[in-house]
Design brief:
Elements: H1 18-28, E1 31-39, E2 49-57, H2 63-73, E3 93-96, E4 99-102, H3 108-111, E5 115-119, E6 126-128, E7 131-132, H4 135-143, H5 166-170, H6 183-187, H7 189-193, H8 200-210, H9 218-225, H10 239-243, H11 250-262
Parallel strand pairs: 1-5
Antiparallel strand pairs: 1-2, 3-4, 3-5, 6-7
Helix pairs in contact: 4-8, 8-9, 8-11
Bound molecules: iron/sulfur cluster (SF4) and FE2/S2 (inorganic) cluster.
Length: about 270
């Protein structure tokens, strides 16, 4: 470049920078879908309604991206809960095209539909629009004592730590992946009909600790779930395991727990 900013003879300034070109290309390749968002404020509405928006999406656009785009540009009032945007915090569960899913883990392109309908999770009270109350899930989770129970401390001068073999860990590690998103409780038909049912999320966590060989709280926990609204209310519909985004498989955990109660597991 010369002193006055002009390019040397024979060189031409490109009309658009490479990044501008890339942006234009991405924009022109986007598709459009209709996003239907359920709106309901329990303090002022008697029934829920839907608001519809046309949204552009790319192959990688998630349902949460689309909702936040609409919230930023068209309707600031949309109530939605999210945090990590990477399927880790468990905040963004909702019903997407009829199925409980994480909005940040569901790509619009994978739904294979011209219409994306988002509604609050079933079996949870609505706070506003897509945000629901987690009081029942947290209460049942706490009820099953989701921690290692034993009299001695984990660290003593003799033990330092409680070693586990890979086989010991294998027994419960799948169940330790629960992010408390509530999708399993939302899909569960017993949760819908029994407001006191402990639910698949808590039962899976009860199994997670019962199966951990460092834990000594098995009898205590089995007593908690062996009650009228406990483990025996599960009909084994299996819908909890179908919707779990972390592969926890609560239905299997419930069956394994029943094995302890029926005496063929120790
Ligand atoms: S078991 Fe799966 S679906 Fe249920 S709360 Fe845990 S991660 Fe979510
Ligand atoms: S925002 Fe955290 S799981 Fe979706």
């Amino acid at each position: 470049m010369t002193k006055d900013g002009a390019l040397p003879k024979g060189f031409e300034r490109p009309s658009r920078s490479p990044s501008q070109e890339k942006y234009e290309k991405v924009k022109s390749s986007s598709k459009t879908t209709t996003l239907r968002i359920s709106k309901f404020n329990p303090e002022s509405d008697s029934t829920s309604t839907f608001s519809e928006f046309k949204v552009h999406y790319q192959r990688w656009t998630t349902v949460l991206d689309a909702i936040l785009e609409v919230k930023s540009n068209y309707d600031h009032s949309i109530g939605v809960r999210y945090s990590c945007r990477q399927a880790t915090c468990g905040s963004c569960g909702m019903i997407i095209n009829g199925k409980p899913r994480l909005a940040c883990f569901t790509k619009i392109s994978e739904l294979d539909s011209d219409l994306v309908t988002v509604e609050p999770m079933n079996n949870f009270p609505i706070i506003r629009d897509l945000a629901v109350g987690f009081e029942r899930l947290i209460a049942t989770h706490k009820r099953i004592k989701p921690y290692i129970i034993r009299d001695d401390s984990e660290v003593t001068s003799e033990t330092k730590e409680f070693l586990q073999s890979p086989e010991d860990v294998e027994k419960y590690i799948q169940f330790a992946g629960c992010i408390k998103c509530g999708l399993c409780n939302s899909a569960c038909p017993t949760m819908a009909t029994d407001s006191s049912f402990v639910g698949p999320q808590a039962l899976a966590q009860a199994y997670r600790y019962v199966a951990d060989n460092r834990d000594k709280g098995k009898d205590e926990r089995l007593k908690i779930i062996d009650e009228p609204h406990g483990i025996w209310r599960c009909h084994f519909a299996g819908s909890c395991s179908q919707v779990c985004p972390k592969g926890v498989d609560p239905a299997m955990g419930i069956q394994l727990l029943r094995g302890y109660l029926l005496g063929y597991r120790k």
